[in-house]
Amino acid sequence: MRLSRLAGGAVVVVLVGALSAAPAQAATVEQVCVGTEVTTFDPPLTFTPRETTIAVSGVFPSCANAGAVTGTYAETFSLTASCLTLFDSGAAQRTFTWGGTLAPSEFQYNAVSNAAGAAVVTTNTGVVTSGGFAPAGAVQVVSLVTPNALQCLTAGVASMAGPTTLTIQRS
């Protein structure tokens, strides 16, 4: 009985404290871009895992910020990949180059890839550390179609393409 009263009292103190705390600042969206990413694999992906050089390039033909109305990026890295294990999670960095008046943005992020139906969805969450929009948080989501099994069994999958979105915001 005593324990339940203490627990109930703690809940009331926490709720009163939360209600009296200063309101959180709303995030200000600085940039939203919609585009396409192309990913190439050398050697092409098969069902056998092997060291693969992955080249990523993206274009944002439509961005909301007047100082950066378009954008591009490119990145190359190596990892062990196959048609069954396309991407790995981990830290990386890429540069967004803007069409407009803003300087390029250095984006340091953590990538997490997951299978979602017939797609591999990669979410890059991180921070713009320098250049245009710095400092600000950013999230980029890329969706690539799952490789065709017949291609994986024969010549392999040399490239994939899909939609990408980027949101940059300050808190």
From TrEMBL:
It comes from the Bacteria. The keyword Signal applies. Residues 1-26 form the signal peptide. Keywords: Signal. This is Ig-like domain-containing protein. It comes from Saccharothrix saharensis.
